[in-house]
Amino acid sequence: MAAAAAPRGWQWGEARALDRAVRLLQRLEEQCGDPRLTSSPPSLRDLLPRTTQLLREVAQARRPAGRDGPEDPGGARDFLVVYLANLVAKSKQVAALLPPPGRRSASDELFREGSTLRRQLAKLALIFSHMLTELSALFPGGKYCGHTYQLTKAPAHAFWRKHCGARCVLPWAEFEPLLCTCHPVEPGSIALALRSTIDLTCSGHVSIFEFDIFTRLFQPWPTLLENWKLLAVNHPGYMAFLTYDEVRARLQACREKPGSYIFRPSCTRLGQWAIGYVNSDGSILQTIPLNKPLLTALLEGQKEGLYLYPDGKNHNPDLTELCQVEPHRRIQVSEEQLQLYWAMDSTFELCKICAESDKDVKIEPCGHLLCSRCLATWLQSESQTCPFCRTEIKGREVVSIHQFQERPAEEARAAAEALAYSSDQEVGEEELGQVTPSPPPLPPRLDLFPDSPRSKGQLKVAFPRLRAPLTLPRIRTVASAPWEITSRPQAREGATGNS
């Protein structure tokens, strides 16, 4: 009877695997009830119920009919097979460290900070955190989106789609030769170290999400593996799989040496770095340079006297060799778009939030442009989403806009007048039965909480409300692109925060 009620095509093996994983996590959650296991994020007591809930949502979204046909290789089904097998394996490792359900007795070593067992438990908590973030990125709300996932860095996205297509996961043995087509990998210990860095969930596979995190951490793309070798293999300040508390504990030995520092991938904001350092007064601070390459953040901190002694050692590696000027990448804007701005009595290069400064920053991955002052003010309001489309801001690129095909003023005015005249004629002929094209949405106002305590001492910019756009003309032709956007390697100032 139950089988008859199930939607046609539902994969019972997958359904049972999801149900088994949920029950396993529930039992594991009971074992983590000892308050002595409470620690700074990531905490298993917080991660386990959230993972359980998301798995239920995935199971619910996978039930509807329409899944009776075979799925493409590397799609949702293949990902879940890899994910659930890894989840079960990691859950058993955690269960072996914890006391059985109903018993509070366990080895004292497990509850002693810095012990081997506690360190193993902290590393497993980090892996569970990575797995939850990965599942949330590829199954938001339980619905699969791996085939449309957008990598933050455009060259990385182009590489993945060219070589991996719509797949969201593939074995490391298959991924490594693909990566070697543009970034050669030395065999042996270097290849093993690279695998351990990319494979955040320790599953033996590489997902599109994990590759996105790796390319964000070790940007820019042209020197991706060179950056990784210098920062993660040879740099004494790099620490993998450390939590906030463990960074503080490690730097305690360097409190008498201000300028000592270590850095690690942030466990709460994957794709960004967390830097811990000893301040001039001996206090231990930790910061996240938002949307800024680590190379830039470390060089700036070195100039300010903050990052001088990696892990307390006197030798600070020279990072300037990797901070080289990249070739300019041109983003062309069509004459159709340019005439649209003329019809609105505006220009393409003008920031559409403040209407005062020129655009000089591109938000990643959505690609919207605005000026750096508006972006800095927007980030200071603690918003980490694009002010235009609300996509999460995962990076930014400094750009400059140049007019390289300047049109004579008379020709420009004549084209605009001809465009307006043609549009008026069409509107008059098709006035009845036509729907007026909706104008683009106004950008949000950023003059948020001007009197709040957080705004004191911060940059205050009065952002005027833009007037309603004119009715947009119907443009039929596309001419050659009269504008270009070129990137500059310099990074703008970034906000900081605690991991």
UniProtKB/TrEMBL annotation:
<dbReference type="InterPro" id="IPR024162">
    <property type="entry name" value="Adaptor_Cbl"/>
</dbReference>
<dbReference type="GO" id="GO:0017124">
    <property type="term" value="F:SH3 domain binding"/>
</dbReference>
<dbReference type="InterPro" id="IPR011992">
    <property type="entry name" value="EF-hand-dom_pair"/>
</dbReference>
<dbReference type="GO" id="GO:0005509">
    <property type="term" value="F:calcium ion binding"/>
</dbReference>
<dbReference type="Pfam" id="PF02762">
    <property type="entry name" value="Cbl_N3"/>
</dbReference>
<keyword id="KW-0863">Zinc-finger</keyword>
<protein>
    <recommendedName>
        <fullName>E3 ubiquitin-protein ligase CBL</fullName>
        <ecNumber>2.3.2.27</ecNumber>
    </recommendedName>
</protein>
<dbReference type="InterPro" id="IPR014742">
    <property type="entry name" value="Adaptor_Cbl_SH2-like"/>
</dbReference>
<dbReference type="InterPro" id="IPR001841">
    <property type="entry name" value="Znf_RING"/>
</dbReference>
<keyword id="KW-0597">Phosphoprotein</keyword>
<keyword id="KW-0832">Ubl conjugation</keyword>
<dbReference type="Pfam" id="PF02761">
    <property type="entry name" value="Cbl_N2"/>
</dbReference>
<dbReference type="GO" id="GO:0007166">
    <property type="term" value="P:cell surface receptor signaling pathway"/>
</dbReference>
<dbReference type="GO" id="GO:0023051">
    <property type="term" value="P:regulation of signaling"/>
</dbReference>
<feature type="domain" description="Cbl-PTB">
    <location>
        <begin position="7"/>
        <end position="321"/>
    </location>
</feature>
<keyword id="KW-0106">Calcium</keyword>
<dbReference type="GO" id="GO:0045121">
    <property type="term" value="C:membrane raft"/>
</dbReference>
<dbReference type="GO" id="GO:0061630">
    <property type="term" value="F:ubiquitin protein ligase activity"/>
</dbReference>
<keyword id="KW-0833">Ubl conjugation pathway</keyword>
<keyword id="KW-0479">Metal-binding</keyword>
<dbReference type="GO" id="GO:0030163">
    <property type="term" value="P:protein catabolic process"/>
</dbReference>
<dbReference type="InterPro" id="IPR017907">
    <property type="entry name" value="Znf_RING_CS"/>
</dbReference>
<comment type="function">
    <text>E3 ubiquitin-protein ligase which accepts ubiquitin from specific E2 ubiquitin-conjugating enzymes, and transfers it to substrates, generally promoting their degradation by the proteasome.</text>
</comment>
<dbReference type="InterPro" id="IPR036860">
    <property type="entry name" value="SH2_dom_sf"/>
</dbReference>
<dbReference type="InterPro" id="IPR036537">
    <property type="entry name" value="Adaptor_Cbl_N_dom_sf"/>
</dbReference>
<dbReference type="Pfam" id="PF13920">
    <property type="entry name" value="zf-C3HC4_3"/>
</dbReference>
<dbReference type="GO" id="GO:0001784">
    <property type="term" value="F:phosphotyrosine residue binding"/>
</dbReference>
<dbReference type="InterPro" id="IPR014741">
    <property type="entry name" value="Adaptor_Cbl_EF_hand-like"/>
</dbReference>
<feature type="domain" description="RING-type">
    <location>
        <begin position="351"/>
        <end position="390"/>
    </location>
</feature>
<dbReference type="GO" id="GO:0016567">
    <property type="term" value="P:protein ubiquitination"/>
</dbReference>
<dbReference type="GO" id="GO:0008270">
    <property type="term" value="F:zinc ion binding"/>
</dbReference>
<keyword id="KW-0808">Transferase</keyword>
<feature type="region of interest" description="Disordered">
    <location>
        <begin position="423"/>
        <end position="455"/>
    </location>
</feature>
<dbReference type="GO" id="GO:0005886">
    <property type="term" value="C:plasma membrane"/>
</dbReference>
<dbReference type="InterPro" id="IPR024159">
    <property type="entry name" value="Cbl_PTB"/>
</dbReference>
<keyword id="KW-0729">SH3-binding</keyword>
<dbReference type="Pfam" id="PF02262">
    <property type="entry name" value="Cbl_N"/>
</dbReference>
<keyword id="KW-0862">Zinc</keyword>
<comment type="pathway">
    <text>Protein modification; protein ubiquitination.</text>
</comment>
<dbReference type="GO" id="GO:0030971">
    <property type="term" value="F:receptor tyrosine kinase binding"/>
</dbReference>
<keyword id="KW-0677">Repeat</keyword>
<dbReference type="InterPro" id="IPR013083">
    <property type="entry name" value="Znf_RING/FYVE/PHD"/>
</dbReference>
